[in-house]
Amino acid sequence: MAIERTGRPTIRTVAEDAGVSRSAVSKVLCNAYGVSPELRARVVASIKRLDYRPQTAARAMRGRTFTWGVLASEIHNPFFADILSGIGRKLEGTPYQPLLGVSQSSHETESSLVEAMLDRQMDGLIWIAPRVTSDILHATARLVPTVFVAYHEAGSEDFDTVNVDDEKAAQLAVDHLHSMGLRKISMISVNWPDRVGAVPHLRERGYAMAMRGHGLQDLIEVMHSEESAVDVGALTARVLSRRDRPEALLCWNDAAALEALSEAKRVGIDVPHDVAIIGIDNTAFCRLEQNSLTSVDVFAEGLGENAARMLIERLDGRTTAKHILLEPQLNVRRSSSKNG
Amino acid sequence: MAIERTGRPTIRTVAEDAGVSRSAVSKVLCNAYGVSPELRARVVASIKRLDYRPQTAARAMRGRTFTWGVLASEIHNPFFADILSGIGRKLEGTPYQPLLGVSQSSHETESSLVEAMLDRQMDGLIWIAPRVTSDILHATARLVPTVFVAYHEAGSEDFDTVNVDDEKAAQLAVDHLHSMGLRKISMISVNWPDRVGAVPHLRERGYAMAMRGHGLQDLIEVMHSEESAVDVGALTARVLSRRDRPEALLCWNDAAALEALSEAKRVGIDVPHDVAIIGIDNTAFCRLEQNSLTSVDVFAEGLGENAARMLIERLDGRTTAKHILLEPQLNVRRSSSKNG
DNA sequence: TTGTAGGCGTTATCAT
DNA sequence: ATGATAACGCCTACAA
Predict the structure, then answer these.
(1) What predicted TM-score, i.e. pTM, was given to this entire model?
(2) Average pLDDT across chain A, whole number
(3) Most buried among A236, A245, A255, B82, by the most CB within 10 A?
(4) Is B55 within 7 A of strand C by CB distance?
(5) Dist. CA B34–CA A91, nearest whole Å
């Protein structure tokens, strides 16, 4: 019986235990042709008895790792956690293991995280809300099957994308506010690398389009803050203290909207009476009574599930790109309702 | 020039480019002895020119992967995100890459996630808030260097632990409530696998000890809910609607406390006047005005940094166990203050 | 149907 | 100081 350095049984151990060749074991593992039921049974029994599991590194040398890299730049936002849940659920029962790498801004850059994933031979990548330039995305996708979530480039042949219609999400919000008779609707957005397909960009566009659609083009106002919570808070505080304060604030995401709620409360401005506030993402915190934040649901978990499905299809051989666009849905709560 | 299947340069490509042997390149990569400055320079130049990076799978076959597995059962709680931030920060500039695996309850079990990590030859594990039995933890730690965060077993020789003093955290909360003249202090805890070293268990103990310390042993009341937000909400609603409603609720973590705030608001019970509410973890949401939740800081990011430091030390050769216990710190906010 | 042999990219041992 | 060589565990032609 072969004794291995690691103490783990190897394919060799199993072969000896079952009294067959190593390749026989391998064939059983890969569900390959040319193994008799009897031989298979013996091998399966040995595998079970020895508690054998193939070593990913060795497999990687010959092909696949059964490992997916999931890339995110931030995970404090529950939006990312929801996506990950969706991926995890979809991968249940498959041999694939998703592993999350986080590129904390200012720490590890996104590109070096991608390199780390490539070095580790991930079978595929799910990349959430990328910030780097489009050419890097294409270059990456040509090296390894990649699905982008929260990044729009429906024309790309190199990769799949899975998104909610972010323009429409913002439009739904504006339409709702307008239907309440509000006109001075400003938007709080975020400083983000200026990419055409970036989510903040599209949400800003949707806002502007909707405003124009209602004849409010003169009232269009988009303000940008850094991503940090304190910056969002400071910006909101400035806006709310203005004499010509807007009647409503559309925040580019829930995190910003929750900060806005906080600032409004701090300075004693009533929501929604003095100012209505709307977020986008419809994360779990919106539901809490102290927030009761109107928000546009972007079905983050569904995004994750779809992304996983796309990648499975790719690994199963699909070569043409697919681009999925889910319908957003408005959830009205107290932060923007008349009888709030 | 060797052409590789993957299109990536290999150590062989570099060797040929630099006109040296593969072992020479390897030695440069590993900072091994016996390479002349001149040879090293040539190799380094080739590595840079070819943009060569070693393949992790191949390295794994010979030893290390420079990859750490981080295990968590849930990531919606920002507590986990903070820990991960701490790990990431500490690992900046090191060759190690942390990758997060999530064992969503009811989906993938924790044990199978551990197996996935072992199959992928992680150099080390950081395991946050494990739920499985202690013997599994020991068995795992004997296979691969492991640091546990948010799990107490200071006597273990097999692994390191990094924690805040969870008993004391709960005590601080009770002491504070008691100092406000409150006596009927109940605790909302969670159904959790009944492990001696589990965080909910210790926080419950700390609560009970503090109550006894103040002569309030007859008022000790610990209620348990499932982890899901709706369950916490339902339990809180029941408690708040009781005629003999407690004067204060100590929630085992912030997530539960935020739900409690929500329910209180829903049924029109004023916080803190009618009931004071305290959480533990001091996650970012406590700061928001609409929550203004008193909470005990457990320095999650510090936990992450310490865990990373412990694991680095292990990989550098330390063989004796270390157990770190940070001091918690109370942060009083409106949800428990007299002039709230 | 089954087994043999070679190689994936890297590191470590041992000659030179 | 440098280089040849042998593993590591697995998969896949190909041979029996």
Answers:
(1) 0.95
(2) 94
(3) A236
(4) yes
(5) 48
